[in-house]
Amino acid sequence: MENAKTAADEPAAEAATSWTDRLGLRALDYSIPEAANRWPYMLGGVTSALIVLLVLTGLYLEQFYQPTPVGARDSVLYIITRAPLGDWVRSVHYWASGALTVSLTAHLAYVFWRRSYRKPREVTWWAGVVLAAVVFLLLVTGTGLRGDQEGFEALAHFVAGGELTQALGGGFFTDGFTPSTSLLARIFTLHTSLLPLVLLVAIALHYWLIRHLGIHSSSPRTRSFRDHLVQLSGLTLLTYAAVGAVAFLAPEGLGVRAGKLARDVGDGDRARRAGRISPGAPFTRPESGRSPRYSWRYRLDRPRSGAARARLLALRMAGRSPVAHGHVNPFTTGGGPCDASH
Fold it and tell me: 94, 205, 229, 245 — which has fewest CB within 10 A?
Protein backbone atom coordinates (compact mmCIF):
# COMPACT_ATOMS: atom_id res chain seq x y z
CA MET A 1 0.00 0.00 0.00
CA GLU A 2 2.78 2.41 0.98
CA ASN A 3 4.81 1.42 -2.11
CA ALA A 4 1.84 2.19 -4.37
CA LYS A 5 1.37 5.60 -2.73
CA THR A 6 5.06 6.41 -3.10
CA ALA A 7 5.04 5.44 -6.75
CA ALA A 8 2.02 7.64 -7.37
CA ASP A 9 3.70 10.60 -5.71
CA GLU A 10 6.94 10.29 -7.70
CA PRO A 11 5.61 11.90 -10.94
CA ALA A 12 4.26 14.89 -8.98
CA ALA A 13 7.56 15.28 -7.14
CA GLU A 14 9.53 15.08 -10.38
CA ALA A 15 7.25 17.67 -12.01
CA ALA A 16 7.93 20.19 -9.20
CA THR A 17 11.37 21.10 -10.47
CA SER A 18 11.16 24.92 -10.20
CA TRP A 19 11.31 26.94 -7.00
CA THR A 20 7.84 28.23 -7.79
CA ASP A 21 6.51 24.71 -7.38
CA ARG A 22 8.72 23.87 -4.43
CA LEU A 23 7.59 26.91 -2.48
CA GLY A 24 3.97 26.47 -3.48
CA LEU A 25 3.81 29.88 -5.14
CA ARG A 26 1.44 28.58 -7.78
CA ALA A 27 -1.25 28.91 -5.13
CA LEU A 28 -1.04 32.66 -5.86
CA ASP A 29 -2.16 32.14 -9.45
CA TYR A 30 -5.86 32.48 -8.74
CA SER A 31 -8.04 35.04 -10.49
CA ILE A 32 -9.18 38.34 -9.03
CA PRO A 33 -11.15 41.21 -10.60
CA GLU A 34 -9.04 43.42 -12.81
CA ALA A 35 -10.33 46.46 -10.94
CA ALA A 36 -8.31 45.30 -7.91
CA ASN A 37 -5.19 46.70 -9.58
CA ARG A 38 -6.50 50.25 -9.23
CA TRP A 39 -4.97 52.20 -6.36
CA PRO A 40 -8.20 52.54 -4.27
CA TYR A 41 -8.31 48.75 -4.04
CA MET A 42 -4.66 48.69 -2.93
CA LEU A 43 -5.25 50.81 0.17
CA GLY A 44 -5.76 47.67 2.21
CA GLY A 45 -2.47 46.21 1.00
CA VAL A 46 -0.62 49.45 1.73
CA THR A 47 -2.14 49.48 5.20
CA SER A 48 -0.83 45.96 5.82
CA ALA A 49 2.62 46.97 4.53
CA LEU A 50 2.70 49.92 6.94
CA ILE A 51 1.76 47.62 9.82
CA VAL A 52 4.72 45.40 8.92
CA LEU A 53 6.99 48.47 8.90
CA LEU A 54 5.69 49.54 12.30
CA VAL A 55 6.29 46.07 13.72
CA LEU A 56 9.89 46.01 12.48
CA THR A 57 10.73 49.50 13.73
CA GLY A 58 8.89 48.85 16.99
CA LEU A 59 10.93 45.70 17.64
CA TYR A 60 14.10 47.75 17.20
CA LEU A 61 12.95 50.56 19.49
CA GLU A 62 11.82 48.06 22.11
CA GLN A 63 15.42 46.93 22.63
CA PHE A 64 16.35 50.36 24.03
CA TYR A 65 13.14 51.51 25.71
CA GLN A 66 12.72 51.34 29.48
CA PRO A 67 9.02 51.31 30.48
CA THR A 68 9.42 52.94 33.90
CA PRO A 69 8.30 56.42 34.98
CA VAL A 70 11.89 57.31 35.87
CA GLY A 71 13.73 55.79 32.92
CA ALA A 72 11.31 56.23 30.01
CA ARG A 73 12.44 59.72 29.03
CA ASP A 74 16.14 58.92 29.38
CA SER A 75 15.73 55.79 27.26
CA VAL A 76 14.01 57.83 24.51
CA LEU A 77 16.88 60.33 24.66
CA TYR A 78 19.31 57.43 24.32
CA ILE A 79 17.43 56.21 21.24
CA ILE A 80 17.57 59.67 19.70
CA THR A 81 21.19 60.48 20.46
CA ARG A 82 23.16 57.23 20.82
CA ALA A 83 21.36 54.17 19.44
CA PRO A 84 22.53 53.27 15.90
CA LEU A 85 20.10 54.94 13.51
CA GLY A 86 17.82 55.34 16.52
CA ASP A 87 16.66 58.86 15.64
CA TRP A 88 15.77 57.85 12.08
CA VAL A 89 14.10 54.55 13.08
CA ARG A 90 12.03 56.35 15.71
CA SER A 91 11.03 58.97 13.16
CA VAL A 92 10.10 56.24 10.66
CA HIS A 93 7.93 54.66 13.36
CA TYR A 94 6.26 58.02 14.03
CA TRP A 95 5.58 58.94 10.40
CA ALA A 96 4.53 55.40 9.48
CA SER A 97 1.87 55.55 12.18
CA GLY A 98 0.55 58.75 10.64
CA ALA A 99 0.56 57.21 7.17
CA LEU A 100 -1.22 54.16 8.59
CA THR A 101 -3.97 56.38 9.99
CA VAL A 102 -4.48 58.01 6.59
CA SER A 103 -4.45 54.77 4.57
CA LEU A 104 -6.70 52.88 6.99
CA THR A 105 -9.24 55.71 7.15
CA ALA A 106 -9.25 56.03 3.36
CA HIS A 107 -9.66 52.25 3.00
CA LEU A 108 -12.62 52.13 5.38
CA ALA A 109 -14.24 55.12 3.70
CA TYR A 110 -13.85 53.61 0.23
CA VAL A 111 -15.24 50.22 1.32
CA PHE A 112 -18.19 51.93 3.02
CA TRP A 113 -18.85 54.14 -0.01
CA ARG A 114 -18.94 51.07 -2.29
CA ARG A 115 -21.18 49.26 0.19
CA SER A 116 -18.86 46.29 0.33
CA TYR A 117 -20.16 45.54 3.81
CA ARG A 118 -23.36 43.99 2.47
CA LYS A 119 -24.19 40.29 2.38
CA PRO A 120 -22.21 38.02 2.28
CA ARG A 121 -19.30 40.21 3.44
CA GLU A 122 -20.66 41.44 6.76
CA VAL A 123 -18.05 39.56 8.82
CA THR A 124 -15.28 40.86 6.56
CA TRP A 125 -16.44 44.40 7.27
CA TRP A 126 -16.63 43.90 11.01
CA ALA A 127 -13.20 42.28 11.06
CA GLY A 128 -11.91 45.43 9.37
CA VAL A 129 -13.68 47.62 11.93
CA VAL A 130 -12.10 45.65 14.78
CA LEU A 131 -8.75 46.01 13.05
CA ALA A 132 -9.23 49.79 12.86
CA ALA A 133 -10.18 49.95 16.54
CA VAL A 134 -7.04 48.02 17.53
CA VAL A 135 -4.89 50.34 15.40
CA PHE A 136 -6.46 53.32 17.20
CA LEU A 137 -5.61 51.77 20.57
CA LEU A 138 -2.06 51.16 19.39
CA LEU A 139 -1.75 54.82 18.42
CA VAL A 140 -3.07 55.98 21.80
CA THR A 141 -0.92 53.61 23.84
CA GLY A 142 2.12 54.51 21.73
CA THR A 143 1.57 58.19 22.55
CA GLY A 144 1.65 57.33 26.24
CA LEU A 145 5.16 55.89 25.85
CA ARG A 146 6.76 59.11 24.58
CA GLY A 147 8.21 60.11 27.94
CA ASP A 148 7.30 63.80 27.63
CA GLN A 149 4.41 66.11 28.50
CA GLU A 150 2.28 64.75 25.65
CA GLY A 151 2.84 61.18 26.83
CA PHE A 152 2.07 62.21 30.41
CA GLU A 153 -1.25 63.71 29.35
CA ALA A 154 -2.06 60.55 27.37
CA LEU A 155 -1.51 58.50 30.53
CA ALA A 156 -3.71 60.96 32.43
CA HIS A 157 -6.49 60.29 29.92
CA PHE A 158 -6.07 56.55 30.55
CA VAL A 159 -6.41 57.12 34.29
CA ALA A 160 -9.50 59.30 33.86
CA GLY A 161 -11.12 56.75 31.57
CA GLY A 162 -10.23 53.91 33.93
CA GLU A 163 -11.82 55.69 36.89
CA LEU A 164 -15.02 56.22 34.94
CA THR A 165 -15.23 52.58 33.84
CA GLN A 166 -14.03 50.73 36.91
CA ALA A 167 -17.21 48.64 36.98
CA LEU A 168 -16.32 47.39 33.49
CA GLY A 169 -12.71 46.56 34.32
CA GLY A 170 -11.32 50.00 33.64
CA GLY A 171 -9.39 49.88 36.90
CA PHE A 172 -6.57 48.30 34.90
CA PHE A 173 -5.72 51.80 33.66
CA THR A 174 -5.43 53.35 37.13
CA ASP A 175 -2.40 53.58 39.38
CA GLY A 176 -4.24 51.72 42.13
CA PHE A 177 -4.66 48.54 40.07
CA THR A 178 -1.51 46.97 41.54
CA PRO A 179 1.52 48.34 43.41
CA SER A 180 3.88 45.86 41.74
CA THR A 181 3.93 47.50 38.28
CA SER A 182 3.46 51.04 37.05
CA LEU A 183 0.73 52.15 34.67
CA LEU A 184 3.40 52.93 32.09
CA ALA A 185 4.67 49.33 32.21
CA ARG A 186 1.15 47.97 31.69
CA ILE A 187 0.57 50.34 28.77
CA PHE A 188 3.87 49.18 27.29
CA THR A 189 2.75 45.54 27.59
CA LEU A 190 -0.53 46.37 25.86
CA HIS A 191 1.28 48.21 23.07
CA THR A 192 3.92 45.56 22.41
CA SER A 193 2.20 42.26 23.25
CA LEU A 194 -1.56 42.04 23.69
CA LEU A 195 -2.77 44.52 21.07
CA PRO A 196 -0.40 43.21 18.34
CA LEU A 197 -1.73 39.68 18.94
CA VAL A 198 -5.32 40.88 18.59
CA LEU A 199 -4.31 42.81 15.48
CA LEU A 200 -2.71 39.69 13.97
CA VAL A 201 -5.88 37.65 14.54
CA ALA A 202 -8.06 40.39 13.00
CA ILE A 203 -5.77 40.65 9.95
CA ALA A 204 -5.72 36.88 9.48
CA LEU A 205 -9.51 36.67 9.66
CA HIS A 206 -9.89 39.64 7.33
CA TYR A 207 -7.60 38.19 4.67
CA TRP A 208 -9.04 34.69 4.94
CA LEU A 209 -12.55 36.01 4.36
CA ILE A 210 -11.38 38.09 1.39
CA ARG A 211 -9.74 35.02 -0.12
CA HIS A 212 -12.85 32.91 0.53
CA LEU A 213 -15.53 35.41 -0.55
CA GLY A 214 -13.52 37.28 -3.16
CA ILE A 215 -13.13 41.01 -3.80
CA HIS A 216 -16.30 43.02 -4.24
CA SER A 217 -16.29 44.18 -7.86
CA SER A 218 -18.71 44.22 -10.78
CA SER A 219 -15.94 43.96 -13.37
CA PRO A 220 -16.16 40.70 -15.38
CA ARG A 221 -12.49 40.84 -16.40
CA THR A 222 -9.97 39.09 -14.19
CA ARG A 223 -6.24 38.99 -13.67
CA SER A 224 -3.85 36.79 -11.73
CA PHE A 225 -3.31 37.61 -8.08
CA ARG A 226 0.42 37.21 -8.63
CA ASP A 227 0.39 40.15 -11.06
CA HIS A 228 -1.57 42.15 -8.51
CA LEU A 229 1.00 41.25 -5.85
CA VAL A 230 3.86 42.52 -8.03
CA GLN A 231 2.10 45.84 -8.58
CA LEU A 232 1.27 46.12 -4.88
CA SER A 233 4.91 45.42 -3.98
CA GLY A 234 6.00 48.34 -6.14
CA LEU A 235 3.51 50.65 -4.44
CA THR A 236 4.72 49.38 -1.05
CA LEU A 237 8.34 50.19 -1.88
CA LEU A 238 7.34 53.70 -2.94
CA THR A 239 5.45 54.13 0.33
CA TYR A 240 8.45 52.93 2.34
CA ALA A 241 10.74 55.29 0.45
CA ALA A 242 8.41 58.24 1.07
CA VAL A 243 8.13 57.49 4.80
CA GLY A 244 11.90 57.08 5.10
CA ALA A 245 12.55 60.36 3.29
CA VAL A 246 10.08 62.28 5.45
CA ALA A 247 11.62 60.74 8.58
CA PHE A 248 15.06 61.90 7.43
CA LEU A 249 13.99 65.44 6.55
CA ALA A 250 11.62 65.95 9.50
CA PRO A 251 12.79 63.76 12.40
CA GLU A 252 10.42 63.49 15.31
CA GLY A 253 11.73 65.15 18.46
CA LEU A 254 11.03 64.78 22.15
CA GLY A 255 8.79 67.19 23.99
CA VAL A 256 9.38 68.92 27.29
CA ARG A 257 9.53 66.96 30.51
CA ALA A 258 6.14 66.19 32.01
CA GLY A 259 4.83 68.95 34.24
CA LYS A 260 7.64 71.36 33.36
CA LEU A 261 5.28 73.96 31.91
CA ALA A 262 2.46 73.54 34.39
CA ARG A 263 3.21 76.87 36.07
CA ASP A 264 3.29 78.72 32.76
CA VAL A 265 0.23 77.47 30.95
CA GLY A 266 -1.24 80.95 30.87
CA ASP A 267 1.94 82.94 30.15
CA GLY A 268 3.93 81.94 27.09
CA ASP A 269 6.35 84.87 27.39
CA ARG A 270 7.34 83.88 30.90
CA ALA A 271 7.90 80.31 29.75
CA ARG A 272 10.19 81.53 26.98
CA ARG A 273 12.15 83.75 29.37
CA ALA A 274 12.58 80.79 31.71
CA GLY A 275 14.13 78.82 28.84
CA ARG A 276 11.45 76.16 28.81
CA ILE A 277 10.37 76.98 25.26
CA SER A 278 12.74 78.12 22.54
CA PRO A 279 12.18 81.65 21.17
CA GLY A 280 10.82 80.41 17.84
CA ALA A 281 8.35 77.92 19.29
CA PRO A 282 4.64 78.73 19.04
CA PHE A 283 2.65 78.96 22.24
CA THR A 284 -1.14 79.03 22.36
CA ARG A 285 -2.99 80.24 25.40
CA PRO A 286 -5.26 77.49 26.75
CA GLU A 287 -8.98 77.85 26.53
CA SER A 288 -11.05 77.22 29.61
CA GLY A 289 -11.58 73.55 30.24
CA ARG A 290 -9.11 72.44 27.57
CA SER A 291 -5.57 71.19 27.70
CA PRO A 292 -2.91 73.73 26.64
CA ARG A 293 -1.16 73.26 23.34
CA TYR A 294 2.59 73.42 23.20
CA SER A 295 5.31 72.92 20.66
CA TRP A 296 6.18 69.41 21.79
CA ARG A 297 9.26 69.13 19.61
CA TYR A 298 11.96 70.93 21.51
CA ARG A 299 14.52 69.41 19.14
CA LEU A 300 12.54 70.48 16.09
CA ASP A 301 11.29 73.93 16.99
CA ARG A 302 10.86 75.74 13.68
CA PRO A 303 12.83 79.02 13.68
CA ARG A 304 11.10 81.80 11.79
CA SER A 305 14.14 83.46 10.22
CA GLY A 306 15.70 82.04 7.09
CA ALA A 307 19.20 82.06 8.59
CA ALA A 308 18.04 80.14 11.66
CA ARG A 309 16.31 77.56 9.47
CA ALA A 310 19.48 77.14 7.42
CA ARG A 311 21.52 76.59 10.59
CA LEU A 312 18.99 74.02 11.84
CA LEU A 313 19.10 72.14 8.52
CA ALA A 314 22.90 72.13 8.62
CA LEU A 315 22.85 70.73 12.14
CA ARG A 316 20.48 67.95 11.10
CA MET A 317 22.68 66.98 8.20
CA ALA A 318 25.79 67.16 10.38
CA GLY A 319 24.16 65.02 13.02
CA ARG A 320 24.16 62.18 10.54
CA SER A 321 27.85 62.61 9.74
CA PRO A 322 30.22 62.61 12.74
CA VAL A 323 33.09 63.77 10.53
CA ALA A 324 31.19 66.74 9.14
CA HIS A 325 29.78 67.73 12.52
CA GLY A 326 33.07 69.24 13.68
CA HIS A 327 33.26 71.38 10.55
CA VAL A 328 29.66 72.57 10.48
CA ASN A 329 29.07 73.21 14.18
CA PRO A 330 31.23 76.38 14.48
CA PHE A 331 29.19 78.00 11.71
CA THR A 332 25.77 77.01 13.08
CA THR A 333 25.98 78.19 16.67
CA GLY A 334 25.31 81.78 15.64
CA GLY A 335 27.52 83.13 18.39
CA GLY A 336 24.67 83.19 20.88
CA PRO A 337 24.54 81.65 24.33
CA CYS A 338 23.98 77.91 24.55
CA ASP A 339 20.70 76.76 26.09
CA ALA A 340 21.69 74.07 28.55
CA SER A 341 18.10 72.97 29.08
CA HIS A 342 18.03 71.57 25.53
Answer: 245
